[in-house]
């Protein structure tokens, strides 16, 4: 193919996609602020620097003489990529669309304009404003930064002054723009919708169920594909996802949408112009939907048309490994037994014996995950149950 692609971010979450792109025949270049980023190993060349700095991206793109610029499954460089692509006249979503995709406040405003169901919300820039906003929104509520990733700083708010005060302060400290968001808590199961937008058409590849941790953190513990909710609800969700992407005007991009299925219908949590992380985009969806998502995204970053053939609906189960306490991993046992389970496609640990781990409070605290793939969701579930029995993590 001899097309040169600059991948922004070469961490563990991007490595599989980078390796696959190289196997497809593309010439891959990458940048990351970590000099030991694992994706560098598969890149023809790389540079170390700030992936949020569009000037650095522009300089790297010129040095490598690339044909397209992209990033897989992360929010962090979405805006800088759009800025760099605009300056270099390369295919990309617009800068405004990129900002919309990473800013929860802008998304809430858009939903109001297009009469799409959304929680009540207020923004705040100071602690006192945050506490006043909580009084106005009423409890239960969710406090979060408007522009963080990985669920950092997202907290369920009960009516406890000291706790809510610390949550507001945390949201402000994490937000790059020092802005927090308070929104009404919507009760109900959470689902995720993944797909592509291509030349104005919205393609929904899959919808999965999510099991979340208990408040205050509300983090994903498990994902199951396909969703088990009733077809009538799925139809509403597909319609909402299509309306959201059309309203956003985002073009030629993968998307990831999170929705709460409330008693009154689906309510948007947030959406993003990227694929889902933890190998969902580059490994699970290709299996479940029988489509090469990495190749599709690369073609879009080159301005080439994509064609989505018949979308299948196979099964997958993703279980996140986490700790119930802060501590040090003393021993890890059972990995070989887990790997020998027929339906287990992958077990990935981000930590090793001797490493410090934290009680789950953000996505970065996850110790790892176990992935099961099959044509039948019941086989996936049985495999994960057995894997959890084999896994023995001793944390002191």
Written overview of the protein:
By secondary structure, this protein is α+β, with helices and mostly antiparallel strands. The chain has four domains: 4-92, Rossmann fold (3-Layer(aba) Sandwich); 120-184, Dna Ligase, domain 1 (2-Layer Sandwich); 187-313, 2-Layer Sandwich (D-amino Acid Aminotransferase, Chain A, domain 1), CATH 3.30.470; 316-395, D-amino Acid Aminotransferase, Chain A, domain 1. 34% of the residues lie in helices and 29% in strands. The protein is built from twelve helices and 19 strands. It has helices spanning 12-24, 54-64, 78-88, 95-102, 104-113, 127-137, 161-174, 231-248, 280-289, 293-301, 335-339, 377-390, and strands spanning 4-8, 27-32, 45-48, 68-70, 121-124, 141-145, 155-157, 180-184, 190-198, 201-212, 220-225, 253-262, 265-272, 315-321, 327-333, 344-349, 356-357, 368-374, 392-395. An eight-stranded antiparallel beta sheet has the order 13-12-9-10-11-14-18-16, sandwiched between helices. The protein has a four-stranded parallel beta sheet with strand order 3-2-1-4, with helices on both faces. A four-stranded antiparallel beta sheet has the order 5-8-6-7, sandwiched between helices. Helix 2 packs across helix 3, helix 3 runs antiparallel to helix 4 (95-102) and helix 4 (95-102) crosses helix 5 (104-113). It is globular, with a radius of gyration of 21 Å. The termini are far apart. The model has no long low-confidence stretch (mean pLDDT 92).
């Amino acid at each position: 193919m001899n097309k040169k692609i600059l991948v922004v971010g070469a961490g563990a979450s991007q490595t599989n996609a980078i390796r696959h792109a190289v196997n497809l025949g593309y010439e891959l270049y990458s940048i990351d602020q970590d000099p030991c980023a694992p994706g560098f190993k598969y890149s023809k060349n790389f540079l170390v620097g700030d992936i949020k700095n569009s000037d650095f991206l522009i300089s790297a793109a010129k040095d490598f003489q690339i044909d397209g610029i992209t990033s897989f499954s992360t929010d962090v460089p979405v805006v800088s990529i759009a800025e760099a692509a605009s300056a270099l006249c390369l295919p990309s979503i617009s800068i405004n669309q990129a900002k919309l995709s990473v800013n929860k406040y802008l998304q809430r405003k858009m939903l109001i304009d297009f009469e799409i169901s959304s929680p009540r919300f207020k923004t705040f820039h100071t602690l006192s404003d945050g506490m006043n906003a909580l009084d106005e929104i009423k409890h239960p509520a969710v406090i979060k930064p408007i522009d963080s990733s990985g669920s950092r700083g997202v907290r369920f708010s009960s009516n406890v002054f000291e706790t809510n005060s610390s949550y507001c302060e945390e949201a402000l400290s994490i937000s790059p723009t020092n802005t927090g968001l308070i929104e009404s808590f919507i009760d109900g199961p959470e689902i995720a919708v993944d797909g592509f937008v291509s030349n104005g058409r919205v393609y929904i590849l899959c919808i999965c169920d999510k099991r979340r941790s208990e408040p205050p953190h509300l983090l994903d513990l498990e994902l199951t594909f396909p969703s088990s909710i009733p077809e009538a609800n799925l139809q509403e969700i597909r319609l909402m996802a299509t309306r959201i992407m059309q309203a956003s005007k985002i073009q030629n991009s993968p998307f990831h949408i999170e929705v709460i299925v409330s008693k009154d219908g689906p309510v948007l949590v947030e959406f993003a112009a990227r694929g889902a992380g933890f190998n969902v985009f580059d490994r699970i969806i290709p299996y479940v939907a029988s489509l090469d998502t990495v190749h599709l995204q690369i073609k879009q970053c080159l301005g080439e048309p994509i064609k989505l053939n018949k979308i299948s609906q196979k099964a997958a189960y993703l279980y996140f490994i986490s700790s119930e306490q802060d501590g040090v991993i003393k021993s890890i046992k059972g990995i070989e037994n887990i790997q020998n389970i027929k339906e287990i496609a992958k077990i990935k640990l981000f930590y090793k014996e001797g490493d410090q781990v934290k009680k789950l409070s953000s996505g970065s605290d996850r110790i790892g995950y176990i992935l099961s793939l099959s044509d039948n969701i019941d086989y996936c579930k049985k495999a994960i149950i057995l894997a959890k029995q084999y896994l023995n993590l001793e944390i002191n």
